[in-house]
Specification:
Distance between the termini: 34 Å
Oligomer: single chain
Low-confidence stretches: 1-25
Radius of gyration: 26 Å
CATH topology of the largest domain: Protein Transport Mog1p, Chain A
Length: 392
């Protein structure tokens, strides 16, 4: 049997978009980009992805920088390398794939006279009695919508306004009489948490705000996974909701973050990476395999089945294999290959027919491409806190 999930990461990292040659001192997941500000001035690079973070330098209009695509699109910011391999964050809207050349100051159009406004037509006086009746009717419709609401397995939708204004309101309740939280234009993606007869209760993944949007102004997306970070007291948790069938929950190591890298059909790849280049990186692969469709956990596999899985590694690599158990009783296969040119440690498990694999490798920016026992133990400790929860 072919090796199931190990190195599916390479398929993502070698996408045509990343075909640019990468210096060994830079992240493998990136490409050249150019700075293009709207006024031709230099762009401040921040230590963190927000406007209030301290400045770590400036990049000039037209300057070529290295764009770390694995961080691209996070809250409108991108991680870049500039100068002598300095790292920082800039707003993504100021990065373009083509050299903008020298800045050309736009010419002002000649001023035009404003047309004379016609006298305003006085608005008709509203009937207070009819207004009260209309408000009562709208309140009854709101109550009806709230009663019809039901929880759903989370899924993505994209806003399609179908309105001349080009935007649609996101409200605190399923009615136009409720307050507006914000407005969205077409293309905005939201995560649906519940449904009423004509409205969706959704969460904005960028702001974490929860509200209601009119159902007919959205279209369902065929996304198979939802990733988010929450906290449990002082501990940061990473969550992946896979196909609405189960959630993977894990306590993230200090300074690490969870991100989805690729979703293709029923195959998901996510990264668990730190900005600290001295720390190793982990990639999580999840894919459904009909061969294990009736297997709830790796614990249910026979010794013969486990031997077949082991052979998918031993036939290609010189590895040591041992078994561990998560804090929730799920068996983990731990595969160590630490003596080769590209050392790795794989942690493989099965849940409800899904093969779940964590691949631990050195950070590509590390001068010494090795994995220490301390780093391996960090990943084992991390995975002993992994839990799989069926979605109710």
């Amino acid at each position: 049997m072919k090796k199931v999930l190990t190195w599916c990461l390479l398929a993502v990292l070698l996408l045509p978009l990343l075909a640019a040659a990468v210096p060994t001192t830079l992240a493998d997941s990136g490409s050249d980009m150019y700075v293009k500000t709207s006024n031709g001035k230099s762009l401040t690079v921040r230590a963190e992805p927000n406007k209030n973070a301290k400045s770590v330098g400036k990049v000039q209009y037209g300057q070529k920088v290295w764009w770390d695509w694995s961080y691209a699109g996070n809250d409108g910011w991108s991680r870049i390398a500039f100068g002598s391999n300095n790292w920082g964050y800039v707003q993504s809207k100021y990065l373009v794939s083509e050299d903008p050349g020298s800045y050309q100051k736009p010419t002002k159009a000649p001023a035009t006279k404003k047309p004379t406004k016609a006298p305003a037509t006085p608005k008709p006086t509203k009937d207070p009695k009819k207004e009260a009746e209309e408000m009562k009717k709208q309140q009854a419709e709101l109550d009806k919508e709230l009663k019809s609401e039901k929880e759903v397995a989370p899924y993505y939708v994209q806003v399609q306004t179908k309105r001349s204004t080009g935007w649609v309101n996101f409200r605190v309740g399923p009615s136009t009489i409720t307050s507006k939280i914000t407005s969205y234009s077409s293309g905005k993606e939201l995560i649906v948490l519940g449904e009423t007869k004509t409205w969706l209760r959704a969460r904005d993944p960028e702001t974490d705000k929860v509200g209601y949007i009119y159902k007919s102004y959205t279209v369902k997306l065929n996304k198979k996974v939802i990733a988010e970070e929450t906290t449990n007291g002082t501990q940061k948790l990473g969550k992946l909701n896979v196909n609405g069938e189960f959630e993977l929950v894990c306590q993230l190591p200090t300074d690490y973050k969870l991100q989805v890298v690729s979703v293709r059909g029923e195959s998901i790849i996510a990264s668990v990476i730190s900005d600290d280049i001295t720390k190793p990186q982990m990639y999580l692969s999840i894919a459904y395999d009909e061969l294990y469709g009736d297997v709830n956990r790796m614990n249910d596999l026979s010794d013969e089945d486990l031997a077949i899985l082991e052979e998918s590694y031993t036939s290609e690599y010189d590895v040591d294999i041992e078994y561990r158990e998560t804090g929730y009783g799920t068996k983990l296969m731990v595969v160590k290959e630490i003596g080769g040119e590209e050392p790795f440690v794989d942690f493989l498990s099965i849940y409800k027919g899904y093969l779940v694999e964590f691949n631990l490798t050195p950070n590509p920016n590390m001068a010494n491409k090795t994995l220490t026992e301390e780093q391996i133990q960090m990943c084992i400790d991390f995975l002993t806190d992994v839990d799989f929860n069926p979605v109710q």
